[in-house]
Design goal:
Layout (H helix, E strand, L loop, with lengths): L1 E4 L15 E4 L3 E7 L2 E2 L4 E2 L4 H18 L7 E8 L4 H11 L9 E6 L7 E8 L4
Parallel strand pairs: 6-7
Antiparallel strand pairs: 1-2, 2-3, 3-8, 4-5, 6-8
Helix pairs in contact: 1-2
Length: about 130
């Protein structure tokens, strides 16, 4: 059994034929890759890597909470950077580190071709038992 999350107050729009999140059996929430969507302007932001990371993680946070989860229960994240070098990695990592408690999720960071953005992040969250 799965439940999809497609839209809620302050949600980023789906940019294609996918869901923002999918809950499976009430145990896991898979959050689709989120870019730097700014809910104030309703557009993607092409600011600094730090700002794009913050906006992507704020979108993830809203999706996780809409799905009944908490950021500190994330078990896995993937970060995609348009340009992956020591500078962009450090800039992303400085912001990313602020979003997790003591038990951080596993993470993979890769360089990727992204369309008109520099940062995209997805994650998997363990949901509380019902």
């Amino acid at each position: 059994m799965k439940e999809t999350i497609t839209k809620f107050d302050q949600s980023p729009p789906c940019g294609g034929p996918y869901s923002l999140g999918v809950k499976t059996g009430g145990k896991l929430l898979f959050v689709a890759g989120q870019g730097p969507w700014d809910p104030k302007t309703k557009k993607m932001s092409r600011g600094s890597v730090a700002e794009q990371t913050r906006l992507a993680l704020e979108s993830i946070k809203r999706i996780v909470e809409a799905g009944g989860g908490r950021m500190e229960d994330a078990v896995s994240c993937r970060v995609y950077l348009q340009v992956l070098n020591e500078s962009t990695f450090a800039e992303m990592n400085g912001v990313y580190a602020k979003y997790w408690g003591a038990d951080k999720p596993v993470r993979t960071t890769v360089g990727a071709q992204l369309l008109n953005i520099d940062v995209e992040i997805d994650c998997v969250v363990s949901l509380p038992s019902a």
